[in-house]
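User: quick one, fold this
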Amino acid sequence: MTNKPYQPSHRKTLNKNQLSILYTLYKFRFGTTDLLRTTQTKPITRQYMNTRLRILCEQEYIGRRYDSSYKLQAKFAQYYLLPKGIVMLKQYPEHFHAQVLRNIKRDEGASERFARHSINVFAIYAKLKDKYGEDVGGSLYFYTKSYMVGEKAEGFPKPLPDAFASFGDEHYIIECFDDTMPQSAMKKRIEQLVENADSGDWILTKGYPSVLLVCETVRLQKLVRRWADVELERGWSDDLSIEVKALDSL
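Assistant:
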C-alpha cells in the first residue's frame, strides 16, 4: 500500500482582507503593492501588504511578475489572479461575472502593455479615491470594464470605456492613454466619444457625463488636448466637456 500525502478535511478559508485583494484584482486585473494598499479598509504599511501578497502567492491564489529589468526601469512588481483565485471568486456569482472570470484566465500570459494599462487605470482610481473618498462615508463610485458586462454594459459607449466614475453630482467617462498606443487609435477614441455624446442615446445619468482623458505623460497630455479640441469643434453638442489631465497631476 502506498502512502498518500495527508489531505486535511478542512482547509483554512481566506479572511476578508485576502478576499478583498482577490476582488480588487478582479476589478482592475493587475495591481502593485502600493495600489493594493489603497483598497484596504484600514491603513497598513507596505511591508505588511507585501506579507499579505506573499502568502496569497505562496498559496497560488495570485501570481507575481517581476524580474531584474523592472528595477532598472523603476517598475514595481505586478500582481494578478491565478486559476485558484478565480475558482474562489466563482463561489460568489452574484458579485463576479463568469465572462469576466473567463477573460481573467488569460492574464497570466497578458502583454506588458495590457498590464501597464490596467495599472494606470488603477492609479486613476487611487488618486480619485484619495481626493473624494468612496462609497459609504465618501462620494466616489468607480466602475471598470469588469463591471460593465451583460446588461450593465447597455448604455455605455462602444467599445467600452476604461472606467466610469461618479462623485457627488458629477459623472465621468474615463479613458487612459499612454505612449504605447498608436496616435490614430487615441484620435479615433476621442472621435467615438464625441459621436456618442452627439447621438443623444445616453440615458444612464441626467445629461451626458464629462469625458476625462488621463495621459501617462505631460507631453502626451498636450497632444491629446489639441485632438480633443478639434473633435469638440466638429461635434454638435454644446454641453460636452472633455478634460485632459496628466496622470501625475490628477
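User: anything notable?
Assistant: The radius of gyration is 20 Å.
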